[in-house]
Amino acid sequence: MQHKEAILASYQRISPYIHKTLVFTSEGINAICGAELFFKCENFQKMGAFKMRGATNAILQLTEAQRSKGVVTHSSGNFAQALSLAAKSLGVPAYIVMPENAPQVKKDAVISYHGQITICEATIEARESTFAKIAKETGAAFVHPSNDIDVIHGNATACLELLEEHPHLEMVIAPVGGGGLLAGTALATHYFGKNCIAIGGEPTAVNDAYRSLKSGKIETNSSTNTIADGLRTNLGNINFPILQKHVDQIICVEEQDILEAMQLIYQRLKIVVEPSSAVALAVVLKNKKSFENKSVGIVLSGGNVDLQKLPF
Question: Which of 134, 152, 169, 206 is most buried, by the most CB atoms less than 10 A from its CB?
Answer without folding.
Answer: 152
